[in-house]
Amino acid sequence: xxxxxxxxxxxxxxxxxxxxxxxxxxxxxxxxxxxxxxxxxxxxxxxxxxxxxxxxxxxxxxxxxxxxxxxxxxxxxxxxxxxxxxxxxxxxxxxxxxxxxxxxxxxxxxxxxxxxxxxxxxxxxxxxxxxxxxxxxxxxxxxxxxxxxxx
Length: 151
Fold this sequence. Notes:
This is UPF0756 membrane protein MFMK1_000422. InterPro entries: UPF0756_TM. One of its GO terms (cellular component) is plasma membrane. The structure is a single chain. By secondary structure, the chain is mostly helical. 77% of the residues lie in helices and 0% in strands. Helix 1 runs antiparallel to helix 2. The two termini are 36 Å apart.
């Protein structure tokens, strides 16, 4: 079995142990792609997979608005409240960190295993919820930058 399969199997196990269904499912899908010799689709997944995932994420967040479950006046008023302004700032900072995390993972994909393992530690010891590698990568990139380990 090639080395990459062992890495993907490790990610699958860590995803299962960390109760991260998304990570476990992604690893399982990659193993199936490898098993049924569909490696020719890997470059397309690498180029477009993130965009497709983000598309579905944005759709899921916008569904309450499309279903008219949120009043437009409530949304407008939230921008002028302290929690609304803090949410706006938090969204901007999180998006910036996510971009840094994506860049770091593209440049240093070997760090993904450490991010997954760190997420498991956060679940176990900090009662956290795994939401994805981009934010974890963004925080790691920020810490690396502060310690002079990242450009």
